[in-house]
Design brief:
This protein is of the alpha/beta class and 312 residues long. 39% of the residues lie in helices and 16% in strands. The chain folds into two domains: 59 residues, DnaJ domain (Helix Hairpins, Orthogonal Bundle), CATH 1.10.287; 209 residues, no CATH class. It has a seven-stranded mixed sheet, with helices on both faces. The protein has a two-stranded antiparallel sheet with strand order 5-6. The radius of gyration is 21 Å and the shape is globular. Pfam families: DnaJ, NERD.
Length: 312
């Protein structure tokens, strides 16, 4: 259970309401331990989630901190903003050159979140802090999903920046190839010596698995992420006259059981599911079977993308 706007709350994991008393909470915890323990045939992932949930709300002090919007370890209190927008220019930790970057990662998702949050709250209702933890947790899943994706896109952008000057990255690239209800964009395009990658950053608030080259899982609600990514990449390929060598779906570390997991090929590009922390290594090493780009070709692909890319 990772800390995300769309993750199940500790109360939901334990199967109780947010107003449950201490005795009810303790009984629920013990019941869920029995039901999920691997030794009795339970799911190890659910068993771990139950333990994490208890750490967050199992004591009066931890529960009070969580209910205020923080955690006991982080010293959360009134006004805590675990999902607030990052500073426009995060402070640099070293002087090494970063990857060249264009666009605003997470910008479209955050903007949509803010607009729809105000619509959901209602006309004339004043929202002091749209990132207040209690407000976010009470919002509909679609709203929380937008914020979760914005955070995921921002995390990916930070990882990609660490690749160095040999890589070029475009964020929030406009495309008309999105499916019904999907964002009209490709989250990231990455060009470097190991290839040209179309990258989508996703957070569904739970574990996803793979089957026959596509992602599956209860949290997906019928979505087909690999197909959607392929369609977006195809639209960019046509507009810029370039050929992607890799298509990556990046998810939080505990949302994937293995990483990188190669899913197959789509129009010649190797598709893979990648955990967030493994992304820089995948970019530097490349994907098995994916073509590399170098020399004059690298310069030509960058020039074509610079001329064709537009942003949402």
């Amino acid at each position: 259970m990772h800390d995300s706007p769309i993750s199940a709350t500790p109360y939901e994991v334990l199967g109780v309401g947010a107003t449950a008393g201490e005795d009810e909470l303790r009984r629920a915890y013990r019941r869920m331990l029995r039901e999920t323990h691997p030794d009795t045939g339970g799911d190890p992932a659910r068993f771990h989630a139950v333990q994490v949930a208890w750490e967050r709300i199992g004591t009066p002090s931890a529960r009070a901190a969580y209910d205020r919007g923080g955690t006991a370890s982080s010293g959360g209190g009134p006004g805590a903003q675990p999902w607030a927008a990052p500073p426009a220019r995060p402070p640099r930790q070293d002087s090494r050159p970063t990857a060249r970057s264009y666009g605003h990662p997470g910008g479209w998702s955050r903007e949509r979140y803010l607009v729809l949050m105000r619509e959901w709250a209602g006309r004339g209702v004043s929202i002091g802090d749209p990132y207040d933890a209690s407000l976010v947790r009470s919002a509909p899943r679609d709203l929380r999903r937008l914020l979760a994706n914005a955070l995921s896109e921002e995390a990916t952008a930070r990882s990609l920046a660490s690749l160095g000057i040999g890589f070029t990255v475009w964020h929030d690239v406009a495309t008309e190839a999105a499916g019904h209800g999907a964002p009209p964009k490709l989250d990231h395009i990455v060009l470097g010596p190991t290839g040209l990658f179309a990258v989508q950053s996703e957070d569904w608030g739970g574990v996803v698995r793979t089957r026959r080259g596509e992602l599956v899982g209860e949290v997906l609600a019928g979505e087909k992420p690999v197909h959607e990514l392929s369609m977006r990449a195809r639209a960019i390929s046509r507009a810029a006259r370039v050929k992607f060598t890799g298509l990556l779906l990046v998810v939080p570390d505990d949302a994937a059981l293995d990483s990188p997991e190669v899913l197959g090929r789509s129009r010649g590009a190797v598709t893979a599911l990648v955990q967030q922390s493994r992304l820089p290594g995948v970019m530097r090493d490349g994907l098995p079977g994916a073509a590399r780009i170098g020399g004059t070709e690298l310069f030509e692909v960058r020039t074509r993308l610079q001329a064709a890319v537009t942003f949402v």
